[in-house]
Structures are given as C-alpha cells and as structure tokens.
Amino acid sequence: MRGRRSEKERNKARRRQIFFRLSLFLVIGASVGRLIVYWVELGNGFPISALLVILLSIPLTLFVQINLHELGHLLFGRLLGYQLMYFQIGPFSWQYQAGRMRFSLKASHGYVGACGMLPPPSELPMRHHLGYFAGGLLVNALTLIPITWLLLITDQSQVFIAGSVAALVTLALILMNGIPQFSALQPNDGQIIVSVLRESPLAADILEAYHTSSALAAGIRPRDLKLSKWSHDRLKQPTAIAIQLLMVHYFRALDAGCHEALNAYVRQMKKYLPHCPTLLQIPLHYELTYYHCMIERDDPQARHHFERVQSVLADDFDINGRRVLSAYALVVLGDDARARKYAQQGINAFDSFPLRGQAKMERSLIKDIIGQSQAASASVGGPPPDVSDQDDQPPYTP
Questions:
Q1: Is residue 74 classed exposed, middle or buried when 0-12, 13-18 and 19+ CB atoms within 10 A define those classes?
Q2: Domain coordinates of the chain in residue numbers?
Q3: N or C: which end of the chain has fewer CB within 10 A?
Q4: CA diameter of the chain
Q5: CATH second-level architecture of 221-379?
Q6: 117: which residues sit within 8 A by CB, 6+ positions away?
Q7: Residue 41 pLDDT more than 70?
Q8: Does the pLDDT value for residue 73 go beyond 80?
C-alpha cells in the first residue's frame, strides 16, 4: 500500500514538473514571438536578422548563465570555507587529485558547467550552508541588473532583441532552479533552500551526505564513519541524496565485513534500482556486480549487473572501477591473470582518487582479490604469473 502511494506521489510530482516547464516554455515562446513582431513594426521587413539574433542569443545565454551559476556556488562556497573538488566550464575541467588541483580537457555535451565542493569538516548550523546553496541563483539574478540597464539605454533594435532574449532565458533558468522541485530524483537549488529553511529531513540528509563526503576526503575509512541510523523511510520517496547515503551505509558494512547489514542494504539497492535515472544506476550496478562476485558468488546475477555497466567500466580507470572489473574477471571469468592486471591498475590509481578514505577501503578489497587470485593459481600448481608488463586488455565481452 505504501509503495502504491509513493508511486502515485511520484507521478503527481512528475506531472506538476511537466506542467510547470511547458508553461514556462509557452511564456518564453510567446515573448520571443512578440519580439519578432516588434522587429517587423520597426519596418525591418521579413525578420531573418531577428531570427538569427534570437537563435544565437539563446545558446550563448544558456552557456554563460549555467557557468555563472556554478561560479556563484564556487564563490559563496569558498567564502564559507568549502573545499573545491572539481569545477568545469565547457571542456575545461579542474579536479582536486592527490592533494593538488589538476587541469584537464574533457569532452562536454550541451552547456556543461559543474561545481563540486565539500563543506568544512567542523559541524556547522544548518542555515550556515544557505549561502552555498543559494550562490548560483544569486549570481544569475545579479546579471539581470546589467541586462536591464542595457535594455533601457540602447537604441539599437538588434541589441534590444538580444538583451530581451538574454533576460528571458536568465529568468527562465532562475525559475527552474528556484521553484522547489525534483529532477531525476535530484532536488534543485530551490528545493534544497526551502528544506534548509524548514530544517526538514531532506536538509538533514543533504548535510549528512556532504559531511560524510568531507570525512572520506579527509582520509576516514567508511568503517570509521559516524552515521545516523539508517531508516528505510528515507526511500519511501527515493531521492538522489537518500540513495547516496544508502551507498555510504553499504560501504561501511562492506569495509567492516558485516554481511548481515550488507545483505539488507543490497536488498534496498535492488528494490529502488528501477526507479533511478541512468546516472544513479551506474554505481548501484557496480556494487551489485562486486557483491554477487565476491560475497554471494552468484555468476548469473553478477553477469546481469555487469552487462548494464560494461561500457562504462571499460573507460573507468579509478580504483573502484578496477576493483569491480578485477572481481568479475576472477570469479565469473576465472581469469586470474586479468584479475591481477585490473587489481594492479586499481592500486596504481590510489593517489588520484579524491575520497582518500574510500580509496583505502578499495585498496584493501583489491588486495583481498589479489590474495584469492594467487591462492587459485597456487592450487593448480606453479607460481602466479607476473602480469605487470602485459598489454592492457579490454573488459570481457560476453
């Protein structure tokens, strides 16, 4: 009964979100149409130039405002003592690795902008974090001041149309981020701000997830984390934050070798896997592959989950991705050499993993895989082969 009610509530929320976005797009479309009429009324004839200005202004404004939004989070976060983990503007990416910031170029899709930060290690009052969560919206809102000033002083019709489009797109982004709602189970800035002001359970979960990430980045292993007691009520209406916390509880049980708790968390992961968007499904499939390889020794289930993230794992050279591949190669494929190859790649990636505490757990799990691989090789006679110089091989394709 509870599940049916939760599903109804999720569907209702989805319908509200679709209605809100359609209404917003209709208003923007009507406004753009009015700008074209304005252009014609000025005696400029068929509005080819106006259409070109509009078509160029929309993507340019989206790119600028999305990245200014992330910059707002960065600036307010630094003022509040947050630690920057990664920042991306289009293809330009900065990521904190092995104690220092590294620059790289990454292929980007759409109007990519991203900012990931961790709060200061000390416990702070919930409302202290409001500046960070609201920083992006505040910067977007501030840009409306120069845009409005430009519209008031210009006598150039093309500049007026470009400025009007920029103002409309900016206002639309502010409304989409500021009006409380969920998108792909992820709360937007407005939802987080309202939750913090109300000191709701969602805000408590968000802050616990942030502080947990901060502790892991500081080198605390999952088994040593201080977590609030897990409540299955968190997943009556699953959010990305609740699923993230479920993963943290799973890691703590895995690191501590507590199989009873581990089994309970795995059941929860499987229950809510169908409700998760693709990006949230990936880490769940990772861990379910590992669990069915190393804990349950269930080859069919391990294959089932592995096949859903096989292409992602092929390009994942982080320590956690190599750990999953190593376990799969050892248990499902029975390929000791390949298992040790992936294991060594994972250990080599230890220093580049941003969450040092999790990396310590990953290294311990990988060493266990290596130990089991060596034992398997010894049981069939002869010393284990040296695979350190072997050419890298792609993951197994069933």
A1: buried
A2: 11-194, 221-379
A3: N
A4: 90
A5: Alpha Horseshoe (1.25)
A6: 73, 74, 77, 82, 83, 84, 85, 132
A7: no
A8: yes
